[in-house]
């Protein structure tokens, strides 16, 4: 049942009403003219204030509202109803006050937890609401200090460097002469690189003072939404002129300004309407597969309870009918009438429900939560899942699906940053059709790779060592290229500069592997010659040669400026406030446990956000109670040089330009040796450093200008006219600049080859020589791109276009209309970009290497041996992805690989049908084993082995498949037969669609793993989402259920912890059902001897304590700490993971077997004491006390049989439970004189413990009750041992006995669901026949 908070419903309705009043857009004005009026009279009064309230309760509403919430849980309502029913005299089973104890304890504990969490929320709200900020006052004619809670929409706010932004502010002024503000969004998305925000274009002139009192304009923007990546609107001035703005002019609440002395703006969203707060939707909740089965079994228990109660009701009515006269002990009512047998039977039905209510496990759900918390704690403390270089451990953000880790059947993985390092290394390039291999750079990379230098991100090395940027205009090319021989010295310096693990670098993509490029000698000579000719003005002499030489310079200029890299200086460190530090400092177990409980209990700690999705948001302002001591090592954050005032276009003209040396004293410029780059993408970082290696150094970037230092020292300051950002539809980005010398408007474009090649200029109208040149360049470049892709390199194409002034002016008008639009703004902007990106001239292409992470092939192989089907979904081109797939063993050269690549729906359907027909013939029937020869493919050398099948499909074909239901069904059927699937050129939306398709069609447990924002949809669509701490922010981590630092950790997380969590929890749940039924059935059997009167032979207090204290802790510890196999065994034999995939631990048959066992044991525990004391004169409690005792021993020892790995904790909890039982029972029997008249358990336990018969009854009963269970375990382990037992036997054997165990295992009857390759008999001594390679088939 899903409960909806009525107060929240009212608030939502009122919110919708306010939105309807607000309209499609938000219009706001300055509050300054109305400052002396009451807030309700302000024109912006309908918008929410900046007060944050995340609490659920007040002091007066806590008790009623919390009880109201708890009563909406069906289990609580059920037990409260039974407790109330026990107050009805005609149906009560025992003292009404006693019946209230269990439910009152549960309600009180839950209320205490909710109250404590809400108190933490209240304290955090108070801290946030009372933070200081600067608000402009018309009365004070300046900025005055206010509290965050006093800020309202329409106020003018000033934030200084390192200050947290209090609300969503439209940026109108900064102290930076370039009108930019640098903002760090790490508190929101985890990205440590600086984001650049600019003043609304055209609002004010640079360096002009900002006067909020003179603001007479109207701000029109979109309504509040949770999309952190998009924002649109315009400022309408009094003269009706509109100035459009976007997300690049919005300062987000919770972010921190960096390296900008002052920034001012007007508040557009406040409080709960800010984008960060709209993304805070609370902790994620997913229902596990085991939980869904558990709910069904609870219903079976309800049916069983009703059946037992019905039997009791009928039995009581029939028993009363056997009396000819009314028994003497029957008491009439106030009118002297006796209750008829039929009505008495009806009443007895409810009495039996009260008596047998424990059959429904009230404590099971609480116990499951405790067990999962314990499992999560031990997972996070696993040192094998700790990454020392980055000082990160696994994070578990979804506490309720730990057991799903042991049932995964399909794994969907991203490639870049997940399987690979996401450390982009410039390897090769092709310019105007000529390829340059960069062999010297390959030598340097090999040297760094041998020393494992690529494993660390150490930017202190960058800062401490002296950069040796070559003076290319004065250095011989051979000398520059010969620097590769100094790689060993660089590595030694690099290693000596390593910092201790735990000192985290905040500057991404900055290791020597990525930043240092040894130029190709031949290419360097050509570039220097081209720059020399440019200086001499002779580049245009000779048509073809001049064109080629100019394209060489254009290529590296495009590498340097066609990006969003932020330029900073190594000497200006980014100022930071004291914050948290992610360290792995040694702590005691209890200290770690306290920290873990504190973390999971915090209302903010489990919150996070996902860009564009309504996901929980991390608390950006949470402070440690005791701020940690920050290392003295300064942060490596850097800043864009301030104070510069770039020359305007009129100041830098072709007749005024001259060769300039970089002047460190010039404002706004930086020395080439001092610049550092902060990028959001490793590709951009690699390309900028490659351009720098060839002398085209990016020195400065402002919103309207970008400065590049050419090889011979000339500074080119391009005016940036527009930036056409990258999107997944165009798959390219462009920058439109004006050349400072020629005054030409040039469009530089980079993107995927498929996105650039299709928009190249048609050379039909050009001269023959130019036409031949362009065709040769295109054909050679395409050939080189294919070669790069086969080598596993990531490829990018670069092109340019010279735009006429008239064409630019016409296009600019359309562009401004799109920028000022609010509705469909993104589509309009994309259309304008497509309009300009036509008739391009191809310059060249690059090949960038992204190396595999360590142990990726071994991890994928282990996952496949565990029965998981592995998919890789990537945006790379097919050739690159296939090469990586073979390298990581996703595809094997023995596989039969089908490649689906078409853009026609009819052809797609035909290919799917023919491929599916062929694949079906490779089934379990050996008749079709040789069918692969029809494709020119040889079958495996082992004729008993079926060929394994792989599938490769590209994004265009996949989009056709996903359009129609028939194609989707055929595609899923085809993938069912494939061992591996590789999807190339797919978009983020296609990734999530594929995951949902496989999950819903095949009804399998899915896991998605990725590291970037483009993987968020896929991670959220899967049953289990895994994020990787990558180099492109933490969006994937924040959207995930679990977060790991390396792909190799997935193996241990699933095969070890996943298997343990599933087996532990499934055994514990079944044990709970067994335990409750075994105890309740004692009361049921007694009804046959007391006329089904609802009488209990055990004292009510002891009945309550039995489940609440005596038998509650051992199963919880079993669920947390039991190990059915060691971690070494589970990693050595991945096939054991199939136990969880096939739900072997928690099957419906296992549930009913446990129920039958409980019935049998309850019969033994009842009738052996009954037969022993039959005919004696003992009282009712003396009769029930031995039953209660033997039941305790039976239930505890039953769990002892189930335990696989005994620890001190198991011994302590079990012995402690027994001692607690005897201690409480002895004390209760000693003090309970008149607590339960007319029969009291006074001194009963003391008397029976003095009787030898009591001990004999306990011994015989326990042995007889557990003998079938123990015998079945022995026979099963002897006659039909499961694979898990084989593995444990092998684990216990010394090395000398391993061979004997293998031989015995090979002779045992196999389990068709499992194949333990590591446990099979040794292969024959004769060498096997060679296996011929299967070649991929392209359809």
UniProtKB/TrEMBL annotation:
Q: What broad class of enzyme is this?
A: translocase
Q: Which domain of life is it from?
A: Eukaryota
Kindly give the membrane topology term recorded for this protein. Answer: Multi-pass membrane protein
Q: What is its main location?
A: endoplasmic reticulum
Name the keywords, alphabetized: ATP-binding, Endoplasmic reticulum, Magnesium, Membrane, Metal-binding, Nucleotide-binding, Translocase, Transmembrane, Transmembrane helix
Known EC number(s)?
A: 7.6.2.1
| Residues reported in the UniProt entry to bind Mg(2+) | 414, 416, 1011, 1015
The record's Gene Ontology biological-process terms are: phospholipid translocation
| An annotated Gene Ontology molecular function | flippase activity
Which residues does the annotated region (Disordered) include?
Answer: 619-682, 1308-1339
The positions annotated for binding ATP are 414-416, 684, 726, 750, 794, 874-876, 985, 991, 1014-1015
Q: Name one GO cellular component term.
A: plasma membrane
Reactions mediated catalytically: ATP + H2O + phospholipidSide 1 = ADP + phosphate + phospholipidSide 2; a beta-D-glucosyl-(1<->1')-N-acylsphing-4-enine(out) + ATP + H2O = a beta-D-glucosyl-(1<->1')-N-acylsphing-4-enine(in) + ADP + phosphate + H(+)
**What protein name applies here?**
Phospholipid-transporting ATPase
Q: Which gene encodes it?
A: atp10b
């Amino acid at each position: 049942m899903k409960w909806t908070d009525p107060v929240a419903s009212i608030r939502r309705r009122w919110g919708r009403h306010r939105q309807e009043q607000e309209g499609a857009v938000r219009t706001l004005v300055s509050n300054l003219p109305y400052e002396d009026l009451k807030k309700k009279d302000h024109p912006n009064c309908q918008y929410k204030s900046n007060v944050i309230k995340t609490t659920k309760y007040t002091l007066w509403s806590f008790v009623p509202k919390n009880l109201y919430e708890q009563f909406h849980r069906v289990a609580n309502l059920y037990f409260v109803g039974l407790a109330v029913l026990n107050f009805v005299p005609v149906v009560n089973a025992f003292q009404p006050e006693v019946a209230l104890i269990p439910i009152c304890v549960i309600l009180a504990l839950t209320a205490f937890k909710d109250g404590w969490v809400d108190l933490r929320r209240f304290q955090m709200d108070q801290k946030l609401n009372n933070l200081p900020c600067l608000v402009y006052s018309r009365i004070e004619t300046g900025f005055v200090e206010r509290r965050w809670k006093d800020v309202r929409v329409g106020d003018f706010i000033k934030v200084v460097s390192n200050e947290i932004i209090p609300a969503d502010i439209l940026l109108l002024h900064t102290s930076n002469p370039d009108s930019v503000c640098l903002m760090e969004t790490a508190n929101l998305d985890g990205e440590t690189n600086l984001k650049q925000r600019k003043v609304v274009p055209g609002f004010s002139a640079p360096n002009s003072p900002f006067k909020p009192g003179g603001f007479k304009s109207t701000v029109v923007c979109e309504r509040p939404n949770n999309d952190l990546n998009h924002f649109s609107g315009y400022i309408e001035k009094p003269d009706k002129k509109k100035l459009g703005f976007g997300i690049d002019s919005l300062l987000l609440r919770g972010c921190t300004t960096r390296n900008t002395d002052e920034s001012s703006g007007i508040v557009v969203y406040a409080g709960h309407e800010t984008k960060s707060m709209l993304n805070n939707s609370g902790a994620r909740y997913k229902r596990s597969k085991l939980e869904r089965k558990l709910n069904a079994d609870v219903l079976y228990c309800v049916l069983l309870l009703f059946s037992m109660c019905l039997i009791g009701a009928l039995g009581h009515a029939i028993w009363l009918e056997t009396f000819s006269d009314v028994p003497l002990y029957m008491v009439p009512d106030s009118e002297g009438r006796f209750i008829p047998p039929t009505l008495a039977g009806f009443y007895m039905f409810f009495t039996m429900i009260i008596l047998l209510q424990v059959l429904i496990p009230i404590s099971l759900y609480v116990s499951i939560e405790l067990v999962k918390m314990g499992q999560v704690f031990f997972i996070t403390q696993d040192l094998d899942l700790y990454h020392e270089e980055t000082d990160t451990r696994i994070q578990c953000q979804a506490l309720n699906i730990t057991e799903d880790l042991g049932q995964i059947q399909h794994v969907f993985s991203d490639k870049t940053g997940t399987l690979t390092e996401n450390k982009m290394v410039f390897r090769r390039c092709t310019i105007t059709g000529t390829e340059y291999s960069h062999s010297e750079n390959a030598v340097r990379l090999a040297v760094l790779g041998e020393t494992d230098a690529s494993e660390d991100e150490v930017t202190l090395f960058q800062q401490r060592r002296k950069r040796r940027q070559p003076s290319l205009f004065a250095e011989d090319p051979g000398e520059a290229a010969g620097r590769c021989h100094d790689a060993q010295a660089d590595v030694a310096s690099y290693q000596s500069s390593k910092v201790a693990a735990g000192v985290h670098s905040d500057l991404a993509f900055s290791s020597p592997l990525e930043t240092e490029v040894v130029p190709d000698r031949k290419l360097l000579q050509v570039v220097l010659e081209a720059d020399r000719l440019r200086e001499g003005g002779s580049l245009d002499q000779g048509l073809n040669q001049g064109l080629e030489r100019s394209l060489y310079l254009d290529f590296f200029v495009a590498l340097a400026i066609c990006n969003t890299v932020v330029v900073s200086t190594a000497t200006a460190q980014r100022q930071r406030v004291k914050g948290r530090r992610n360290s792995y400092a040694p702590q005691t177990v209890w200290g770690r446990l306290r920290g873990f409980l504190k973390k999971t209990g915090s209302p903010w700690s489990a919150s996070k956000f996902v860009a564009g999705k309504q996901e929980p948001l991390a608390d950006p302002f949470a402070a440690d109670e005791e701020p940690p001591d920050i290392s003295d090592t300064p942060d490596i954050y850097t800043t864009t040089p301030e104070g510069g005032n770039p020359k305007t276009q009129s100041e830098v003209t072709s007749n005024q330009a001259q060769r300039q040396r970089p002047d460190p004293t010039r404002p706004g410029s930086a020395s080439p040796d001092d610049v550092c780059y902060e990028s959001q993408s490793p590709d951009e970082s690699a390309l900028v450093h490659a351009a720098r290696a060839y002398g085209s150094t990016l020195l400065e970037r402002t919103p309207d200008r970008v400065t590049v230092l050419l090889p011979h020292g000339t500074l080119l300051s391009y005016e940036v006219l527009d930036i056409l950002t990258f999107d997944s539809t165009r798959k390219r980005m462009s920058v439109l600049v004006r050349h400072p010398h020629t005054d030409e408007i040039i469009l530089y474009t980079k993107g995927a080859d498929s996105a650039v090649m299709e928009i190249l200029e048609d050379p039909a109208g050009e001269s023959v020589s130019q036409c031949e040149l362009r065709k040769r360049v295109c054909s050679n470049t395409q050939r080189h791109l294919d070669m790069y892709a086969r080598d596993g390199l990531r490829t990018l194409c670069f092109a340019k276009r010279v735009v006429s002034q008239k064409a630019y002016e016409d296009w600019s008008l359309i562009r401004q209309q799109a920028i000022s639009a609010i509705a469909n703004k993104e589509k309009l902007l994309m259309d304008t970009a497509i309009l300009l990106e036509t008739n391009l001239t191809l310059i060249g292409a690059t090949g960038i290497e992204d190396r595999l992470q360590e142990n990726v092939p071994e991890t994928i192989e282990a996952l496949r041996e565990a029965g998981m089907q592995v998919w890789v979904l990537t945006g790379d081109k097919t050739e690159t992805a296939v090469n990586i797939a073979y390298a990581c063993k996703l595809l094997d050269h023995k596989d039969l690989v089908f490649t689906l690549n078409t853009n026609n729906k009819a052809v797609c359907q035909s290919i799917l049908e023919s491929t599916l027909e062929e694949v079906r013939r490779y089934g379990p029937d050996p008749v079709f084993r040789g069918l692969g020869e029809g494709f020119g493919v040889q079958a495996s050398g082992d004729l008993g082995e079926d060929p394994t099948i792989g599938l490769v499909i590209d994004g265009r074909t996949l989009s056709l498949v996903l359009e129609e239901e028939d194609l989707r069904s055929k595609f899923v059927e085809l993938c069912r037969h494939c061992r591996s699937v590789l999807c190339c050129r797919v978009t983020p939306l296609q990734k999530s669609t594929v995951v949902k398709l496989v999950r819903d069609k095949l009804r399998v447990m899915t896991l998605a793993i990725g590291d970037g924002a483009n993987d968020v949809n896929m991670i959220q669509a899967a049953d289990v989402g895994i994020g990787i701490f990558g180099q492109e922010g933490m969006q994937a981590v924040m959207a995930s259920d679990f977060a790991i630092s390396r792909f190799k950790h997935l193996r241990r997380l699933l095969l070890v912890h996943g298997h343990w969590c599933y087996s532990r929890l499934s055994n514990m749940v079944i044990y709970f059902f067994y335990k409750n039924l075994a105890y309740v059935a004692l009361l049921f059997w007694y009804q046959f001897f007391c006329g089904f009167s609802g009488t209990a032979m055990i004292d009510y207090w002891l009945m309550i304590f039995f489940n609440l204290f005596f038998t509650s802790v051992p199963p919880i510890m079993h669920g947390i700490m039991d190990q059915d196999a060691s971690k070494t065994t589970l990693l050595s034999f991945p096939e054991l993971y199939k136990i969880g995939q096939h739900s072997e631990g928690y099957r419906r048959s296992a549930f009913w077997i446990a129920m039958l066992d409980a019935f049998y044991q309850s019969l033994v525990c009842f009738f052996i004491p009954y037969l022993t004391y039959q005919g004696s004169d003992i009282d009712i409690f003396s009769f029930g006390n031995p039953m209660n005792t033997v039941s305790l021993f039976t239930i505890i020892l039953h769990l002892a049989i189930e335990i696989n790995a005994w620890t001190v904790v198991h011994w302590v909890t079990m012995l402690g439970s027994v001692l607690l039982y005897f201690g409480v029972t002895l004390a209760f029997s000693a003090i309970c004189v008149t607590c339960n008249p007319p029969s009291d358990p006074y001194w009963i336990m003391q008397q029976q413990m003095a009787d030898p018969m009591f001990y004999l009854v306990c011994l015989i009963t326990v042995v007889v009750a557990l003998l079938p269970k123990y015998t079945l375990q022995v026979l099963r382990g002897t006659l039909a041992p499961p694979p898990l037992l084989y593995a444990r036997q092998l684990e216990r054997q010394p090395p000398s006995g391993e061979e004997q165990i293998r031989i015995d295992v090979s002779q045992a009857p196999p389990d068709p669901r499992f194949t333990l390759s590591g446990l099979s008999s040794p292969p024959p001594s004769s060498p096997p026949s060679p296996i011929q390679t299967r070649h991929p088939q392209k359809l």
